[in-house]
Each structure stands twice: as structure tokens, then as C-alpha cells.
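Recap quiz, item 2
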Amino acid sequence: MFSKTCEYAIRAMIFIAQKSKDGSKVGIKEIAKGIDSPEHFIAKILQELGRKRLLQSVKGPNGGFYLDDESLQCSLADIVKVVDGDKLFTGCGLGLKQCSETHPCPIHHEFRSVRKGIQTMLENAKLGAFTEELEKSLTFLKR
Amino acid sequence: MFSKTCEYAIRAMIFIAQKSKDGSKVGIKEIAKGIDSPEHFIAKILQELGRKRLLQSVKGPNGGFYLDDESLQCSLADIVKVVDGDKLFTGCGLGLKQCSETHPCPIHHEFRSVRKGIQTMLENAKLGAFTEELEKSLTFLKR
DNA sequence: TAAATAAAAGATAAAAATGTCTTTTATTTG
DNA sequence: CAAATAAAAGACATTTTTATCTTTTATTTA
């Protein structure tokens, strides 16, 4: 469904969101451990998300990554678009570039509703909304 | 959503299904052209589908690939399972191996219904059912 | 201002997916 | 049976994705 890169991105952003709720910042080492990902690999991903303003960071002592109030309103769809592009939301299920509403592939119409469901779900999933269940250990991000 | 390999596989199987309706067989060259894919690459994929009995073939003059009545009843879900495995249907959206109903990731429950939608859609899409619209050029497989 | 800290950036490597080319095997037909 | 045909199989190449390691830049604190 998502690339591995995107899975890491989502997990990291949810992790940072949780840590950001009380205004604190979190270092890349802690993030990598917290979501069980390669440190430098997730660092690259976060740099990209930072450039796209989905995430904030500061260098130096007491620095780290965090999400401001606006970023906490980001949805998973926003992250997916930055990392994997929007082919999941708009691309043809069979990979046909010329596929469209008026020139559909054999599964175009069936796919439309499925895709819509994915998009709606991801757009409604705001980063700030995962904290409570994580705190209560009703959900998890590593193992 | 699917790997490129799987996209080719589905396109090829729908193509062969169409040709098989009148009992004729179709060669790998014609398939590759018909779905706009690399010839030897799709050949490999069809060999695998053949080994799994989703597809029939005969060698030699007048040989080629075809689908018997049973294979025409195959669903796209069957093909996806052979080519991409069942991670699309059962895997965690965030790539967490330990994720389950009782130990869910933050998006587990939201994902369940989306995944179910995909699975239902693919299981209901039988290879034999695409022919008519293709014949009428209401849908297409290349460009 | 010097030292320490932590992200940013760059370079390289490994693994997986995708694509191409050649040889082998099975089948049919004359 | 010999030749032609077409799939099966094997070897190899390229591209993309994923992962690792090193250097640079920015910031803070003593």
C-alpha cells in the first residue's frame, strides 16, 4: 500500500506528535528507537518533511524535531502525498497512464470507490489525534 | 497499490481471458503487444501463474496461453495473491509485524474496512467478466 | 569564544524490483 | 523423423528502493 519509506514517515510523525503534545522536542536517535527504524534513513525522510513544512526542527543542544500546532493538524494523507506522491489517490490501478473516467481500464470504476475510501480515511486521520490511545497503550508503534 | 509485476499480470490475464472466450490461444508476443509490456518479463510472470494453475499453456506450433473454464472463474484477488502475496489483504498499513486486532497500530481499525473493501472488490472481479466491455471498447488495456 | 550537541547534507553500499538476452525443452506439422 | 514453432528456463543487466557511513552546518551553553 505504502512504500517502506512512507511507513517509516507515518510512524515517525505519529511518534513526534505524541512527544510534541507537551511542547518538548525529540532527537533522531530517540525517534529511530521509538519506531524501530534505521536512524539515518528516517533522518533523510524527516529532512524532506521539514522542507515541505510538515515538521519543525532545531539544531544544537536541546534541539530536535517537533510539531507545531499547525503541523499537529496535518493528516496522514499530507504525509503520503509528500513521500509517495499522489499516485495512490489518482493513479490507475493497473498502471495505465492513459486511464481516465472517459477512457477507463477494466477495473477503473470499481477502483474509484476503493481509492476514495483510502483517501477519506487518510485525510481524516490527523496527527494530533493518535496521542491519547498511544498514551494508554491501546495502540503501539514498535513492538 | 500493486507491484508493477502484478499490474502486468492482471492486464495479461484479462487480455488472455478475452482471447480465450472463443477457445483460441494467444502467443507471448501478442500478449506483450496487447498489454504494452516487456515480452520476456511478462513471460516469466505467466510461467509462475501457470505453475499455480491459474493459467494454461501449450508449447509448439499453434501453441500459446489460454484460460480454461475454471481459470476464467479466477478473480483478480487470486492473481494478486500469487504475485504480490497477501500482505495487501492482511499486512499492517504501517508495516508493523506485530500488529493485530488485539495489539493494533494507531491506524489498524481504520485500515481494516479499507482493506476489506479492496479484498471484496478484487474477489468479485472474475476474469471472465471483463470481455464484453473490452469488445465494445468501453474499456482498454493499453492505449 | 571554545566546546559540545544535534540536525542537514553528501557519498557510498546493499538489496530488491524491473527489464533484457540466450539457451533449452516440448510440441506440432510436413 | 526433421524442421519449425513457441513456451520454459537460465543468466545477466539496469534501475529503484532501502540502508549505512562520513562530513558539514547551525545552535546552545559554559
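Chain B touches chain A at residues 1-2, 4, 7-8, 10-11, 14, 76, 88, 91, 93-99, 103-108, 110-111, 113-114, 117-118, 121, 125, 130, 133-134, 138-143 (CB under 8 Å).
Residues 27-29, 43-44, 46-47, 50, 57-65 of chain B lie near DNA strand D (CB under 10 Å from a C1').
End of item.
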